[in-house]
């Protein structure tokens, strides 16, 4: 019996969770009581002899690091630092030691090597069973990394070896560094890039030493407001670190869990292999079954698992099972088809019930093969002050309300995106397969809110700085955000219009659900700065493609419509050129469906159909489908006339049977005048009563609210454009896709 108790006590050191330790301890007590029950009966007046159990040895965890481990910047580091919070999470079965030295470097030749500190000696004397090392933040200092960076891996390995010599059998966890915010004074002058180098070196340290990598960077990266001085996480940030460490040490990730995008009535891809992934406790075996297939996976130490499924046949009525030995999830009435993301701002969020054809559309909206996942905002960005509850919710990243897949009915379609509905309807009818639509559009949102932090930090860091007073951000956007957050108590209060915010809450929350492509209607909140938008739009497209790891992910977007805002003609031309320069994109023209005073034109059906035509032609290879209106190829001056050649111009015409209008010519910038136009085959010929000599530029539809009327055979309109005039016979200056 004594040997059994000793073995059980030693086994506690290997248990992963406090709950398991408590259960094992209770089990030992039960064994002892059972043995006592079998002992011979003693005299009634004799006290029973109770066998004393050996005290259970606590698992000792040493948290080694710099000021972040110490808890600098906190009012109560002894209780709020990440080691202190980790102690509370792990419970009485563990003893967590805090050995953080403010200002310490890992590099031994730098200004405050951890090797030389008293905390280092204390950490060795602690005799830890587990060591979590978080060093490297101070090594991004210009006095450290530029001079001694080559020594980083060797110095780190020496630190681990010295600690291992003091505590043989110790398990080591080496942490990627917590983020340094863009607000750091040296962010662009070196810190940004040196921290990346430090974290790459830390990965090498883990590979060489056999230590387990613990990532303190990624969980905090989307929460810069939790790093108020740009270096030190606050109490809430330390809580994220503590939970990250606790899950990794114990393997307890809360059991099997799937993305919210998994629900009854959901849709999965058809006709191609795809992955299903989720979370479960470390080491759990996960089984996935659908359509006669069954796959198994074992969760890794970070709680992740994934399986690859063979192509499903398009259709409805599937059942998806996902299970572990402890839990089983079943999703019914699953469809297999095409899945598209509908994103942008208010004109994409504009619902079917608000549209010009709402009554007829809703009556015809009973389409079970069309599946809708509608991500609505918890808090609208109306012209009002948000409550403290709303402000807290936004800070926590809980901006979107919970959503679930629904079949398309008149009721569900009424509150869904009108553009998205018409896009999905045409796609489903044309392809003959179910179509799933995810809508996460947010009214008023600027492009920068949808761009990843990594890309903005690397390529447009200026837009991150003091964004509520930053001229790169449209004044209306800043004003609305200031109005919504007027009752804020935190200086770093978040808002959905903040750069990166909607990427971090509205894109990353999709957990790489296997979409086919993206439709996008946005730009109104960036029309004040065309040059900035051109850069941001490319970054937004890259963000989407990087996230889904697909360089060819199609992104089809809507050109701004007609509206009485002076900057919009030039903005529409910029969007046209973006469509020509960015591969696997396409632009739907909507200027003929605009309104002179309403930024939300109600005629959405043509816009959704035009986006669907682009997808059918470009992505699905329906080459017989005309997806674009006339596009200018070249303008030539010949015999006192200007001849403009067009692509997609087999039958040029006008939408109203009148001569083409809104063409203008100029010999000098800023001096445009109206020109008469006529159609000849695939050309438009310009002439003016004064004659056309020394003409260098032509433009079309260059009015904020335009009555431009040039179309192709299918009625698709020609975009606003501007083109240089070439001498006769010169090569074309631009070529549409």
A few lines on this structure:
The chain is α/β, with parallel strands linked by helices and 737 residues long. The protein has 22 helices and 28 strands.
Describe this structure as you would to a colleague:
A hairpin with a 6-residue loop joins β22 (663-666) and β23 (673-674). Residues 1-48 have low confidence and may be disordered. By secondary structure, the chain is α/β, with parallel strands linked by helices. The termini are far apart. Strands 6, 8, 9, 11, 12, 13, 14, 15, 16, 17 and 18 form an 11-stranded mixed sheet that branches. Strands 23-22-26-28-19-20-25-24 form an 8-stranded mixed sheet. A 5-stranded parallel sheet has the order 2-1-3-4-5, with helices on both faces. The longest helix is centred in the N-terminal third of the chain and has 23 residues, at 187-209.
| Low-confidence regions | 1-48
Mean pLDDT: 92
- Form type: globular
The level of helicity is 25-40%
Question: Main β-sheet: number of strands, strand sense, barrel status?
Answer: 11 strands, mixed
| Strand content range | 15-25%
List keywords for this structure.
disordered N terminus; eleven-stranded mixed β-sheet; alpha/beta; 22 helices; eight-stranded mixed β-sheet
Question: What layout of secondary structure does this protein have?
Answer:
Blueprint: H1 2-12, H2 18-38, E1 59-65, H3 67-70, H4 77-80, H5 82-90, E2 94-100, H6 118-125, E3 130-134, H7 145-148, H8 152-166, E4 171-176, H9 187-209, E5 212-215, H10 218-221, H11 235-250, E6 267-269, E7 274-279, E8 285-290, E9 293-298, E10 304-309, E11 315-323, E12 328-344, H12 346-349, H13 358-363, E13 367-374, H14 388-395, E14 405-408, H15 410-414, H16 418-431, E15 435-439, H17 453-459, H18 475-484, H19 501-507, E16 517-521, H20 530-547, E17 555-558, H21 568-581, E18 585-588, H22 605-619, E19 631-638, E20 641-647, E21 653-654, E22 663-666, E23 673-674, E24 676-680, E25 683-687, E26 697-700, E27 710-711, E28 721-727
Helix pairs in contact: 1-2, 5-11, 8-9, 16-22, 20-21
């Amino acid at each position: 019996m004594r040997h059994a108790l000793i073995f059980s006590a030693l086994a506690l050191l290997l248990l992963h969770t406090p709950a398991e330790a408590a259960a094992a301890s209770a089990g030992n007590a039960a064994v002892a009581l059972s043995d006592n029950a079998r002992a011979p009966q003693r005299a009634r007046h004799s006290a029973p002899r109770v066998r004393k159990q050996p005290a259970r040895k606590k698992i000792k965890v040493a948290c080694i690091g710099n000021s972040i481990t110490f808890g600098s910047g906190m009012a109560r580091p002894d209780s709020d630092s990440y080691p202190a919070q980790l102690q509370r999470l792990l419970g009485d079965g563990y003893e967590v030691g805090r050995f953080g030295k403010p200002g310490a470097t890992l590099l031994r030749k730098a200004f405050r090597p951890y090797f030389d500190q008293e905390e280092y000696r204390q950490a060795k004397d602690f005799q830890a069973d587990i060591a979590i090392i978080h060093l490297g933040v101070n090594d991004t200092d210009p006095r450290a990394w530029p001079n001694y960076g080559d020594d980083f891996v060797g110095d780190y390995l020496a630190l681990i070896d010295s600690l291992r010599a003091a505590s043989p059998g110790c398990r080591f966890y080496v942490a990627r560094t917590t983020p340094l915010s863009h607000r750091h004074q040296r962010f662009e002058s070196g810190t940004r890039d040196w921290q990346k180098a430090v974290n790459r070196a830390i990965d090498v340290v883990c590979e060489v030493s056999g230590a387990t990598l613990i990532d303190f960077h990624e969980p905090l990266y989307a929460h810069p407001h939790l790093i108020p001085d740009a270096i030190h996480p606050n109490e809430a940030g330390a809580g994220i670190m503590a939970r990250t460490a606790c899950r990794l040490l114990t393997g307890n990730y809360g059991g099997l869990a799937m993305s919210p995008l998994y629900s009854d009535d959901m849709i999965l891809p058809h006709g191609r292999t795809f992955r299903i992934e989720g979370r479960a406790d470390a080491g759990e075996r996960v089984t996935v079954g659908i359509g006669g297939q069954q796959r198994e996976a074992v969760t890794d130490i970070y709680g992740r698992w994934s399986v690859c499924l063979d192509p499903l046949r398009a259709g409805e009525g599937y059942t998806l099972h996902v299970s572990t030995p402890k839990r089983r999830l079943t999703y019914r009435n699953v469809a297999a088809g095409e899945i598209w993301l509908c994103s942008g701002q208010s004109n994409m969020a504009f619902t079917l019930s608000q549209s010009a054809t709402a009554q007829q559309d809703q009556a015809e909206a009973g389409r079970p093969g069309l599946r809708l996942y509608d991500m609505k905002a918890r808090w609208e960005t109306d012209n009002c002050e948000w409550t403290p509850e709303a402000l807290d919710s936004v800070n926590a990243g809980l901006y979107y309300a919970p959503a679930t897949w629904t079949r398309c009915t008149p009721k569900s379609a009424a509150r869904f995106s009108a553009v998205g509905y018409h896009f999905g309807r045409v796609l489903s009818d044309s392809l003959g397969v179910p179509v799933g639509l995810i809508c996460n559009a947010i009214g008023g949102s600027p492009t920068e809110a949808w761009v990843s932090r990594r890309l903005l930090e690397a390529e447009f860091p200026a837009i991150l700085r003091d964004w509520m007073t930053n001229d790169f951000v449209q004044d209306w956007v800043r004003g609305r955000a200031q109005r919504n957050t007027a009752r804020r108590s935190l200086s770093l209060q978040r808002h959905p219009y903040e750069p990166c915010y909607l990427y971090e809450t509205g894109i990353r929350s999709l957990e790489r659900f296997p979409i086919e492509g993206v439709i996008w209607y946005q730009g109104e909140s960036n029309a004040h700065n065309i040059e900035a938008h051109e850069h941001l739009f490319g970054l937004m497209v890259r963000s989407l493609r990087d996230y889904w790891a697909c360089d060819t992910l199609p992104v089809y977007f809507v050109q701004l419509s007609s509206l009485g805002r002076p900057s919009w003609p030039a903005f529409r031309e910029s969007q046209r050129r973006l469509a020509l320069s960015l591969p696997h994109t396409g632009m739907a023209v909507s200027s003929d469906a605009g309104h002179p005073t309403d930024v939300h034109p109600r005629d959405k059906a043509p816009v959704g159909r035009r986006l669907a035509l682009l997808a059918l032609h470009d992505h699905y290879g329906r080459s017989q489908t005309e997806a674009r209106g006339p596009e200018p190829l070249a303008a030539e001056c010949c015999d006192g006339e200007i001849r403009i050649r067009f692509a997609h111009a087999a039958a040029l015409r006008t939408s109203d049977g009148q001569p083409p209008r809104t063409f203008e010519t100029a010999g000098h910038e800023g001096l445009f005048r109206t020109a008469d136009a006529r159609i000849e085959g695939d050309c438009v010929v310009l002439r003016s009563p004064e004659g056309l000599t020394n003409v260098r530029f032509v433009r079309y539809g260059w009015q904020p609210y335009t009555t431009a009327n040039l179309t192709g055979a299918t009625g698709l309109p020609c975009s606003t454009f501007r083109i240089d005039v070439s001498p006769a016979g010169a090569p074309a200056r631009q070529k549409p896709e």
